[in-house]
Structures are given as structure tokens and as C-alpha cells.
Design brief:
This protein is of the alpha+beta class and about 350 residues long. The protein is about 15% helix and about 40% strand. The strands form 6 sheets. Strands 4, 5, 7, 8, 9, 10 and 12 form a 7-stranded antiparallel sheet that branches.
């Protein structure tokens, strides 16, 4: 009887240990090779650091914040030490820094907090790209030409546009249509992809002709380019990733930059936007369409299953379209690939 009780107790303890381990593993989502500590270096991002510990790096808001020294995980600097600890049985990432060094670094403009995602890959898209509706584009003034009947112009040149300004402000942007988006499933028109060509200041307005001076240009301004109010865009480095809204699925409309296929840190446009409730920080899983192969036995064509090929995070939202940065990819990301809640 005693042996039976001991054996039963051992079995129960072993079962509880296994359940506890399985539950703990399920809740952690830690990488098998996670480090005990990690020293932040220049060029790191929160996503990158979290990815050294977590299987799903975008879940970093769930594990940061055990150290009272740092209330905001976006105020982490090169040289800080990130360590893994446990609070009430759950993993947390803490921070340790050399108090003798950082008071000096804090007053130095050379040391900046690390961003959430690599800003160098999205800054141009935050500033120079936008998606406009058909009505807005139709109403925007268009460039007639420059002095001496020139059809192209650059920084320092004077140009003339025709039409009523959409907003009565001195600084205007000169945009050119680069692409137009349609929903691949419903064929609904979603908007025009507009590329910013130049910034210009309004010098005078006579009837419906606007005189403008180009103050900065990325490319030559041409006839029929559109005049649109310059967006007041503040470059943000703080993103709070979160799963995309339940039930919202979509597709990749384009890989920005003039290519068809993309990979990690490429920017893509997706066919979901503000009207579907998307916000900057929403994370989607990307699924690549299965290839079509010929069955060697039946000679039929078979479509292979879709496979997950990475994740993207939305960073700029328009009414019907959003821009997302591919944060991880195990395969090429192409136009038509599906996006779903991760």
C-alpha cells in the first residue's frame, strides 16, 4: 500500500511538472536559444532585441518594464544591458545601465534612444508617399509649366499651376501619380499612389493661375504634376505593436520601390486601411500563395497549400490602403500574398 501511494504521488508530481512546463512554455513563447543578457549596440531596434528573446518579437509590450529605472522601453540606449527575469512565473525583460556613464550620454546629441523599428527603411515613405482618392486628385491644381515655356523645372525655378488650391497655405507639395490601386477581390478603386516630387512656395495667385517657386526637389517637376498641400508629418519612432483586428484579412497590393517581390525591411501596400480600423502598429502574418504543380500520376494541376512567409507591421494608414514594413520573411513576399491576424 505504501509503495502504491508513493508511486501515485510520484506520478501526480511528474504530471504536474509536465503540465507546468507545458503551460510555462506555451505562455513564454521564448526562443530555445534566448540569452540571459544582451548588450544594446548602435543600430538595434526594439523589434530586433525582443527577437533575441521571443519567438514573436512584436509581443514586446507584454514583457518589458520590470525595472523602475526605465518606464518607457523606447528610452533604451546603446550600452544598456537587457536581461531576462521572471515575475510571478512570467518572463519579463529588465534593463541595467552604468549610472556613471549615462548621465553624460543623456546630454550628448550623439547618443539617441533606439527606435522600435528601423526608421531608415520607412522615413522616405512617411514623407514622400501618400495615397489619394480620385476626387482629391481631380480637384488638385496641375502644373502648366515654367518660365520661358519650359516643361521641366527644379529647385530655384518658378512654375505656374492652374486650379484652386486645396488649402490656402504658403507651402505646397508637388506630386506625381506613380501607381493606382484596385482591390484584387472586389475590383474597387482604392486610390492613387502619389510620389512627392518637390516642395514649392506660393508667390502669387491671379484668377485660377498660381505662381510658385520651387524650394526643394527630388526630381524634375513636369507639366501635369499635381499641387497638393504639404502634409505635416512628424517622424515617429514610437510604435506599439499589437495584433491586427480580428477577422480583418487582406492582400499585398504592391512592393514599394518599383519591384514586384520583397523581403525583410521592404515596404508594401495592403488593401486595408482606416475604414477597416487599422492603426499604426498593427501586425499581420503574411501567407504566400501555394505554387501550382502538375501531378506526375494523374497529370492534373494541383495548387499547393498557402504557407506563412513572415510578418509585417503597419506604420502609415490611409482611408482604404496602408503601408507596412516587412519585419521578418522566410520567403519572398509578392503582390497578391495574403495577410491575416498573426
Amino acid at each position: 500500500m505504501k509503495k502504491l501511494l508513493c508511486g501515485l504521488l510520484a506520478f501526480v508530481m511528474l504530471s504536474l511538472t509536465q503540465v507546468s512546463a507545458e503551460t510555462r512554455k506555451d505562455n513564454l513563447l521564448l526562443r530555445d536559444d534566448y540569452p540571459e543578457e544582451y548588450v544594446v549596440v548602435k543600430g538595434d531596434t526594439l523589434w530586433h532585441i525582443s527577437g533575441r528573446f521571443l519567438q514573436s518579437p512584436w509581443k514586446w509590450p507584454e514583457v518589458w518594464g520590470v525595472n523602475p529605472q526605465v518606464d518607457n522601453p523606447h528610452l533604451i540606449y546603446p550600452g544598456d544591458v537587457i536581461y531576462l527575469t521572471w515575475v510571478n512565473g512570467k518572463p519579463r525583460l529588465g534593463l541595467r545601465r552604468d549610472s556613471g556613464i549615462y548621465p553624460k550620454a543623456r546630454v550628448s546629441p550623439l547618443v539617441q534612444p533606439i527606435p522600435a523599428i528601423p526608421l531608415r527603411d520607412i522615413i522616405s515613405f512617411l514623407n514622400d508617399n501618400r495615397v489619394m482618392s480620385e476626387d482629391l486628385l481631380k480637384d488638385a491644381p496641375y502644373v502648366l509649366g515654367g518660365k520661358s515655356k519650359r516643361i521641366i523645372a527644379g529647385a530655384g525655378d518658378r512654375i505656374y499651376a492652374r486650379g484652386a488650391l486645396l488649402e490656402d497655405q504658403r507651402r505646397q507639395g508637388i506630386y506625381r501619380s506613380a501607381n493606382q490601386y484596385e482591390d484584387p477581390d472586389t475590383e474597387e478603386f482604392l486610390g492613387f499612389e502619389m510620389l512627392k516630387i518637390a516642395d514649392a512656395d506660393v508667390a502669387a495667385q491671379t484668377d485660377d493661375v498660381v505662381t510658385m517657386d520651387i524650394v526643394k526637389s527630388n526630381k524634375e517637376v513636369r507639366v501635369l504634376d499635381r499641387v497638393v498641400p504639404t502634409e505635416e508629418v512628424r517622424i515617429q519612432s514610437i510604435f506599439h505593436p499589437k495584433p491586427s483586428p480580428e477577422g480583418i484579412e487582406g492582400k499585398v497590393l504592391a512592393v514599394l520601390g518599383g519591384v514586384r517581390d520583397g523581403g525583410q525591411f521592404n515596404v508594401v501596400a495592403i488593401n486595408r486601411g482606416d475604414r477597416e480600423g487599422l492603426e499604426a502598429g498593427h501586425v499581420f502574418a503574411i501567407y504566400r500563395s501555394g505554387e501550382i504543380i502538375k501531378d506526375p500520376v494523374t497529370k492534373e494541376f494541383v495548387t499547393l497549400p498557402k504557407e506563412r512567409s513572415g510578418e509585417l507591421m503597419v506604420f502609415k494608414v490611409f482611408e482604404k490602403v496602408s503601408y507596412g514594413l516587412i519585419m521578418r520573411s522566410t520567403d519572398v513576399v509578392s503582390i497578391g500574398d495574403e495577410i491575416k491576424q498573426p
